[in-house]
Amino acid sequence: MARQLITFQIGEQYLGVDIMAIREIRAWTPTTMLPHVPNHVRGVVNLRGTVLPVIDLSARLGWGLTDPTARHVIIVVRIADQLHGLIVDAVNDIVSINEEDLQAPPSLGADSTASYLEGLVSVEDRMVMVLELEQLSFDLAGIPLAAAA
User: Fold this and answer.
1) In 48, 53, 99, 108, which residue has its Cα 20 to 30 A from 149's Cα atom?
2) Alpha-carbon span 109 to 69, nearest angstrom
3) How far, in Å, CA of 78 to CA of 53, rounded?
């Protein structure tokens, strides 16, 4: 069975998210920082009157903090019934993949980046890591979240 992914980059890494989880793609907007939140929570932005938490996906995956510039993008995704913004370097394409082409991530321990992956798939000679959004389990410590539209 085929599915569609939005692919994007963090540095030289290619990642993908199921297109059905995407609510919108926004240009970078500076965030309002919040006290006492994990370093991967970069703050919040106003999404048409709703508070949207913005997550530094690079930091969440253990790849270091992003220094956002005007070229960065916020991908608004729905995780369970909440909206979150993910900071990424660039959005690439919409691609179709076959479920049988999705390979399980390697077992490297509970704290590895692989624990956040649904799988890996080869797309146009590059390896794309397909994120399992539910596994990111953001600890937002009481931040009011945007309800999914």
Assistant:
1) 99
2) 33
3) 12
User: 71 is written with which tokens?
Assistant: 């070229």
- What averages of pLDDT result for each successive group of 10 residues across the chain (149 residues)? 94 95 95 92 92 93 93 93 93 94 78 75 93 69 48
Q: What are the φ and ψ backbone dihedral angles of 44, each rounded to 5 degrees?
A: -135, 155
**Spatial distance between the Cα atoms of 92 and 149, rounded to a whole number of angstroms:** 24
The whole-number pLDDT of residue 141 equals 39
Give the CA distances from residue 111 to residues 47, 115, 120, 122, in Å, rounded to whole numbers and listed in that order: 32, 7, 18, 24
Amino acid at 80: A
Closest by CA position to 92, among listed 69, 73, 70, 67: 73
d(CA 24, CA 64): 25
- Look up the CATH architecture of domain 2-147: Beta Barrel (2.40)
**Angle, CA of 54, 57 and 63, to the nearest 5°:** 140
Rg (Cα) of the chain, in Å, rounded? 15
| Angstrom distance (rounded) from CA 78 to CA 128 | 20
